[in-house]
Each structure stands twice: as structure tokens, then as C-alpha cells.
């Protein structure tokens, strides 16, 4: 009998299709995972480290311990039968052996894929040098190979997310990460259609982007050949905005928001 973890990992990888992108509405706990997974058309889930960290009352940027991060991932994974890609920040280790060990533990709790970042601290800069960052991607791939689970690695490139980020360096990093075993490049800073189009042409692999209001429309991202779109902590912001609006209405003795009757 085939291992369910292998089935989910293979399914997640197959869903990254240029022109028909995987849309992952980011979740952060069991109930958000279950609610989103019940939506028709949703094929996989992804966590957002920012949202999980804030839900735990700690800052993003590995404010959680690795044990806490794994426990949070397991809550989401256990709440759905869909493949789950986990935002695993920087791998929760300063060295590549630690990254490999931690990713192996992530696979054990059922993750079908992960995001791994190339920045050193909580901010988008500075970044690990390219050789080191690529080695960390390779360590994550090694964990998948050893386990026999073909996890989907969505390697994040933070270069363009900081002022003065160099385009050529960003592309060099992206292609180095692909060669190290990444399946998809999560390129931050693709703020307009021209940048998205250029990145797709110059990166030797699949491209993942974050969707934001005022950014390139989803249909256009599909037309350009993006393979995956996520929304990071934006989905938590959306949820909290509705909650704040409801609280404002209630303390003003206003109408009951219809969403108070939402059954979950």
C-alpha cells in the first residue's frame, strides 16, 4: 500500500502548473484549515508563518521554537486530507545538518511540501550568501530523498523585497536553488506584470508569487505562466478585518452581522 504522505506529496507537486496555477489560501490553525479545505475547488493548503506566529503571540521570523512550529503544522495537517505545504521559515537551524533534520521531522508529521527562506533574520535582508542558501535548499531536498517522500520545495528569494535589490542576483539565486533541488521559486518583489513576465522567462523552473490587492490580477498571473499563488498573512488580515468590523458594529449596538450565524 502506498504511503499517504507520498501520495499527497506527489499530488502537491503535480498541482504546480504554469498557466493553471495552484491557488493556496493560507491558513494557520485547525479550524481555518478545515473551513478552507471544504471550499469547492481548493486542492491544497499552505500555512503562513506570520499568521501562526502572531496567533501564538510571538513575532514572525522563527519566534516559535522548532517544536512549536512542528506542532502548529501538525494541527493543520491533521485537520484535512488535502496536501499541506508548510511555511518552514529558514528551517529553524543555523546549519544545513539541522535544516535536514528538521525537515525530516516536518515530513514525519505529514507535510507534503514546504517554503524555505534565504534571509538570515526576521527582515528580508541580509540574506545568506548564495552558496549557503543553496546548500540549505539541498539539505531540505536530502531530507525528502532519505524519507522517500517527494516533498515540494518552494524556495523563497527575498532579494527584490528590499530597497535596491539587484535583479541579476535574484535570478542567480533562483536558478541556484533550482539546481539544489527546489521545485518552485517563490520570488518576492514581483510587483508588476513586466517583472512577473521577466522572472518567468529567466528562471529555469516554476515560479510562485504572492497575490496582493493592487498587484497583478489572478487571471493575468495565470496567463503569464505563474505556477502557484499564495497570500501569506493577508488571509489572516482579511479575517481580522471582518472581526474588527463586527466588533465595531456590536459595541455600537448596531445590527447583528450575518456572519454571527455562520456554522462551523
TrEMBL record:
Domain of life: Bacteria
Keyword Chaperone attached: no
GO molecular function: lyase activity
Pfam families attached to this UniProt entry: PEP_mutase
Keywords: Lyase, Pyruvate
Protein name per UniProt: Isocitrate lyase/phosphoenolpyruvate mutase family protein
Organism: Homoserinimonas hongtaonis
Amino acid at each position: 500500500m502506498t504511503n499517504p504522505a507520498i501520495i499527497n506529496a506527489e499530488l502537491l507537486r503535480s498541482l504546480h502548473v504554469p498557466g493553471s496555477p495552484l491557488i493556496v489560501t493560507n491558513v494557520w490553525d485547525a479550524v481555518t484549515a478545515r473551513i478552507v479545505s471544504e471550499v469547492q475547488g481548493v486542492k491544497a493548503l499552505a500555512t503562513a508563518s506570520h499568521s501562526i506566529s502572531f496567533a501564538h503571540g510571538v513575532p514572525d521570523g522563527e519566534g516559535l521554537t522548532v517544536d512549536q512550529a512542528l506542532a502548529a503544522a501538525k494541527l493543520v495537517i491533521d485537520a484535512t486530507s488535502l496536501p499541506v505545504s508548510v511555511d518552514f521559515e529558514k528551517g529553524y537551524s543555523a546549519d544545513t545538518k539541522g535544516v535536514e533534520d528538521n525537515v525530516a521531522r516536518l515530513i514525519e508529521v505529514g507535510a507534503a511540501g514546504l517554503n524555505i527562506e534565504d534571509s538570515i533574520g526576521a527582515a528580508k535582508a541580509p540574506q545568506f550568501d548564495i552558496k549557503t542558501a543553496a546548500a540549505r535548499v539541498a539539505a531540505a531536498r536530502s531530507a525528502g530523498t532519505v524519507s522517500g517522500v517527494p516533498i515540494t520545495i518552494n524556495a523563497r528569494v527575498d532579494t527584490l523585497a528590499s530597497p535596491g535589490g539587484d535583479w541579476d542576483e535574484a535570478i542567480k539565486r533562483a536558478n541556484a536553488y533550482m539546481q539544489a533541488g527546489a521545485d518552485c521559486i517563490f520570488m518576492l518583489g514581483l510587483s508588476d506584470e513586466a517583472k512577473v513576465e521577466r522572472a518567468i522567462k529567466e528562471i529555469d523552473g516554476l515560479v510562485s508569487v504572492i497575490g496582493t490587492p493592487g498587484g497583478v490580477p489572478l487571471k493575468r498571473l495565470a496567463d503569464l505562466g505563474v505556477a502557484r499563488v499564495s497570500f501569506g498573512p493577508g488571509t489572516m488580515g482579511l479575517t481580522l478585518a471582518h472581526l474588527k468590523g463586527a466588533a465595531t458594529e456590536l459595541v455600537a449596538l448596531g445590527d447583528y452581522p450575518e456572519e454571527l450565524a455562520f456554522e462551523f
